[in-house]
Specification:
Blueprint: H1 3-18, H2 23-36, H3 42-56, H4 59-69, E1 79-83, H5 93-102, E2 105-109, H6 116-128, E3 135-136, E4 145-149, H7 152-161, E5 167-170, E6 174-178, H8 185-196, E7 206-212, H9 218-224, H10 234-249, E8 255-256, E9 261-264, E10 274-280, H11 283-292, E11 297-301, H12 325-330
Helix pairs in contact: 1-4, 8-9
């Protein structure tokens, strides 16, 4: 697909979702998505779709991508397999759009946890361009390259299985907030979004906060306790109650905020309903800790990093794991 054609595709998609006459069709897919994944609440789905429209369906941003990284490939095109995750609604859209934008054909294996929304987007893309259709496959075969996202366990399998073809394999990652003790109440309010949005299911959710050794956490706790809307979701509430009971039975020191368990733990990945706290005594110690865990961190939030409240609104060129997906794709030819 040529650059001009792809830019028109992006504009077509954006117009489709802003056209009220299409709303009934869109609502059907949203209802199907809620039925296939118990985590996909109405709020979660709509937030994800709004973020996709705002960040990924802006024609001017794609023009910037092409200007910076080159035009789509026009010859020696490849079939690129996309093994998509299903932890968040339509989380595979970035990889899908990047593949179509690069000029290659996308062969998609959908997650059983996120079929409906991705199918909706794929059908819309195919309705716009009949020459370069996105193909859905249950078994990934006959592809020239692969982009796959999974757990640490499945990523090892993917690396071995696709060893003979170019591949981009993503493992588990999580996100960290770095606090200095000088944050405002509004900073904490924005941080609450980074922690609670999508119920902590995404790699861009803050699961660990790094704080100065002497920092008083009460002002932060006062803000986090206000986010009681998460308890309206049965699965989140069950996770929170389970870990609350587990920590009590095992006499693990923790703070119970009524909607979140907070415990001191240097591990980056925390269970749903739990926030880890890691203390640092100096900037050098903090820098070393971040460096040691660099390959496990998706993004860092803080006054000197990604602004509070912005983790769930990645820009088009904010590539997962810091690997430029578009350049990987255009290098295949």
């Amino acid at each position: 697909m040529k650059k001009e054609r792809f830019v028109k595709l992006v504009s077509f998609l954006k117009s489709y979702f802003s056209d009220s006459s299409n709303q009934d069709k869109i609502e059907l897919f949203i209802e199907k998505a809620k039925n296939e994944n118990a985590w996909f609440s109405d709020l979660l789905i709509r937030n994800a779709m709004e973020a996709i429209t705002e960040q990924f369906l802006d024609a001017s941003r794609w023009e910037d991508i092409f200007d910076q990284y080159g035009a789509p490939i026009q010859e020696n095109l490849k079939k690129v397999g996309l093994i998509l995750p299903g932890n968040l609604p339509a989380v595979g859209m970035h990889d899908l759009l990047m593949t179509v934008a690069s000029g290659h054909q996308a062969i998609v294996k959908l997650s059983s946890q996120d079929r409906s929304l991705m199918t909706m987007y794929i059908e819309l893309i195919n309705s716009f361009d009949s020459e370069q259709k996105v193909e859905i496959q249950e078994r990934m075969s006959g592809v020239d390259a692969v982009i796959a996202t999974g757990s640490d366990f499945s990523s090892g399998y993917f690396v071995n299985y696709f060893a003979k073809i170019p591949h981009l394999i993503r493992k588990n990652r999580s996100s960290v907030a770095v606090l200095t003790g000088n944050e405002s109440a509004d900073d904490f309010k924005q941080l609450a979004t980074d922690i609670f949005m999508y119920y902590g299911l995404g790699c861009r959710n803050v699961s660990t906060i790094a704080i100065p050794d002497s920092m008083d956490l009460v002002p932060l706790f006062d803000v986090l306790t206000l986010e009681d809307w998460v308890l309206d979701h049965t699965k989140y509430s069950n996770n929170y109650q389970y870990h609350k009971t587990l920590y009590l039975l095992n006499q693990i020191p923790h703070f119970d905020l009524g909607n979140l368990i907070v415990t001191e733990n240097d591990a980056l990945v925390s269970p749903v309903g739990v926030l880890h706290v890691s203390r640092y005594t100096s900037e050098i110690e903090l820098t070393d800790w971040l460096a040691i865990n660099d390959e496990k961190i998706q993004c860092v939030v803080g006054s000197d990093y990604i602004p509070f409240g912005q983790t769930q609104n990645p820009a088009l060129d904010d590539f997962a794991d810091g690997v430029n997906t578009y350049q990987f794709l255009t290098s295949l030819s």
